[in-house]
What does this fold into?
Amino acid sequence: MGLKPATNPDVEAATIELSIDGRTVSAKDGVSLYDVIASTGKIIPAMCYHYTFDPFGSCGMCLVMQEGKKAPVRSCTAKAAAGMVIRTDGDDLFAARKKAVEKHLSVHPLDCPVCDADGHCELQDMAFQHGVTNLANAKQKFIPEDTRSLVLDFNMNRCIACAECINVCKDVLMIDALQFMKKGGFNQVVAKGDQPLACEFCGDCLAVCPVGAITNKYSKYLYKPWQMKKTTTTCNYCGDGCQMHLETKDTEVVRVTSPLSWKNKWGDRTETAKGHGGLCVRGRFGFQYIDSEQRLRQPLVRTGETLTDTPWLDTMQTVIDRLSDIHRKHGPESIAGLITARCTNEELYLFQKLMRAGLRTNQLDSSARYGHLNYVHAVRQAVGVGRPLNDWEDLTKAKAILVIGSNITETNPLTAVRIKEAIRVYRSQVIVVDSANTNIAQLASHPLLVKPGSESFLIDGLVKSVIEQDLVDEATTARHPQAFAALKEAMAQVSLDHISAQTGISAEQIREVAAIFAEAPRAIALCAEGIVRQPNGYHNVLKLIDLAWVTGKLGQPGSGVTTVTEEVNEQGAVDMGVAPEFLPGQARFDDPSARERFGKAWDVTLPASASGANFLEILARIRNGQIKALYVIGENPLATLPASMDVKGTLEKLQLLIVQDPFLTETGKMAHVVLPAATYAEKEGTFTNLEGKVLRVRQAVDQVGESLPDWHIMTALANGLGYDWTYESPQDVQNEIMKLLPGYYNLGQPRRVSPSADAYLSNGYAAEVASRYRNHTAQSTPNDGTQPFTLLTGQVLYHSGKMSTRASGLINIEPNNGRIRMNPADVERLGLNEQSTIRLTSRQGSVQAGVKADPDIQPGSCFFPEHFNEPAVKDLMIVDVDAVTGVPYFKSTRVKIEKVGA
Amino acid sequence: MSVGALTKKILQAALFYEIWDAMKVTFKHMFHRPITFQYPREQRTIPDGHRGALGLLRYGDGRDRCVGCDLCEAACPSRCIKVISQEDPERPLQRFASEFYIDITKCVFCGYCVEACPVNALAMTKMYEYSTHDKRTLLFDKKRLYEVGERHLEDAKKYLYAHNQEKNSDESREYRYYFPQSVLKPTQSQPKHLS
It folds into this structure.
């Protein structure tokens, strides 16, 4: 590690004093002199400097005079030392800097007019500032442009060899996809080994490039920076909720830029613990769906077999007539609603208000049901807080991180960057438990490759070995001797040897990682889709909380059990009460005082607390004929749930299916009425990210066609049904939420939670702890040897849900090739090759697919991205329902694989 | 009134003095060269520096000069120019203007766009006759601008020389010709002005 950061959470660097331009300045010993100068407010030019990584010192611009030295020194690579006397200005320094600019410019092509960086170029600014007008020995490099990469073009004629791209890739993102290579007499940036660039395509190299050497293929030549309107908003792909700038020209989105940029280069390295400001491939290159041709531009109403374009007024009249007709004839129990967690908080709030206060039904659910609610219920049960317990800063500064069942670099790339920083800068130990050799496992100090579906055994093993090795935190367990005794008793039936056989991890390894987790001063257990979307997710999260509790990590600052979410506003959906069990603010729906408060606020009597139905119960009630009308906003159950659920047959039973979506989805095609909704770029609102931060969503473009924001449609619908809503903007909804949930709008600074399990431990814990350690079978379907493979479906880096498959930029990077990923050893063993077709057979049926060898997949398992339904791999699954939380599990099954052709 | 003055007045009235006096001007002009000329049958000679309608120019080999850099749009004080640029599908890495509009009704004929153009693709011509019944035709699109440029090529060149935008020499044309250079493959020959 180089010069920065001089301070880390454990050791504080000594304070020194030095003189800068005659002023005495105090600084931390050993930091870059450039940072010290920058901290005084004095900005000296530097083209190769960025605060997120160590100074490189190639541009020769940050020159300062140090007393006692004849020549100017480069302040970025010089360490601040006590007693230095520094001068940062003067004609000699100006001349020296001008010379450096001339040096860069003499080999730089003067093609500014056609360069995408024109007007947003540091070299241009520097040439202007230093008055460079005449270049004596200008010589062009004449290097061919490298256009082999899928998303980025490298024009090395323009490169100034500042290495910011290489440094950010290697040092911040730990991907290390770029390098310098001497070619044609010049040092050029090329992808590793001079191959076509194949990386995670986060585009942070593009963001930090101070010239136009790296350009974006998707927006090449389409713009000049000054022509675009820049809207700062929140990305709506994953739960990270990254801030980004949508840059638009008229009605089209031209590009997406990040707060990470060469323009934003001054900062303290320790600040990156809260995020370095970059984006991932989805955020930066997956914007094309916003102004896609496939967007719905008109409401559609079914006449017979076809959906026909209908004006809004007629459509709303149809919806209102039919909905109120069903409501009148069959009562409120005949209406239900589903909403996606990609809607804003305001819309989620309005949705549940429409359902509960308007239609008087508690049959509603959101996509948080697919997994996040397992985590929410577990932490609420244990510590009484219904949101992830740790933020990014905690993750960065943790000494041990247990990442279990989360392919985090793919699902939540920017949270993964926090873990990478923990590894790189703060030297933390990372234990990764997963059934595939994920990217984070390759970076981790302790990667544990477990057999698919056996993550829960490993948690048992960790708890067991913590108790066995006496690594328990005496102070916390002593406060609840009864609970601890119950846990010990439950542990008695757990044997490490059995766990070792089930998981494929030796008992020593389990003991070792348990010791690392227990002994670290700050340890975080992070669980995600591999836990909360797999059978027994609720209990497995509770087991992780047990682990954190016995090791004294629960309630201790910087430690805890946390999660990441797939959709941006899953936390907001829970907080806004879009679940039959919760009212806004996560008040229990059956809590009389909360019912009274909200009933009073909405001036209604809330539906009976027993009448609620979650997602799968809604489907069951449609099947048994109770529910006759379903209002679906942005959800697509038909394309999500396996065929064994018979969603198609279920939805056909409805008398009225209203689908509100930006696109005509599979579910939409079955609907009686389809309402065109606006995407996040066309509306105002807020998202609540996985840290609990409430982040603004701002309108960047006008709504496409006649589409309208969801809140607008819902308000119109409510007024049509006679509820007299007066919201004219999301701000009005916010005002109402602010009154009901004081302090919810935290302006990106959530209240810190101090989780305490005391209430749970002294009350109810002892009774239920044993049940969760009862050794359940590892797979939902028993393995009798006829189906030797475990098929897993999950997210890939380049996609998020089904929506990203509408973004041409992401489809260009990762199209659906219809291939099952398998370990090369399995591919060889079955006599397959890349051209083969295989048949996968589970108990639910069989599908044919191609094969792709992927060394990161464990032998005996295979993987298919959940974003695609061609072939319909999801239909091989059965749905397991969590008894406590109602979460459907359908992401893994046992299959038989046979070769069918070539 | 005196007797003399009265007599003079009567005499002048009898001899129609006012009429003769006025006719003097008329007769004088009968032998004078006319100041007006018979537009549109006669045309005025216009100086080379005249700022008339804008036209887009091509190189000698018929290629578009314009590289779609949008600098004219940025320079335009009346915001009458709109350039939409993209990569040329036939010549990779070459930027070009897929659409180009000048709203000539808004144009103030300042010539800034011509000064801003790095490749001298825009020039002003001596054309000023484009009155029309349909105002929409005054939104000049790319096709119309190239037509203007073609028809008034000589005037456009003279405008550029007169305003010192382009030198009437081979060396200068060479530089403009090869700017900006995109490099596709290493075997591509270097432009003359660089070798």
In short: The longest helix of chain B spans residues 17-30.
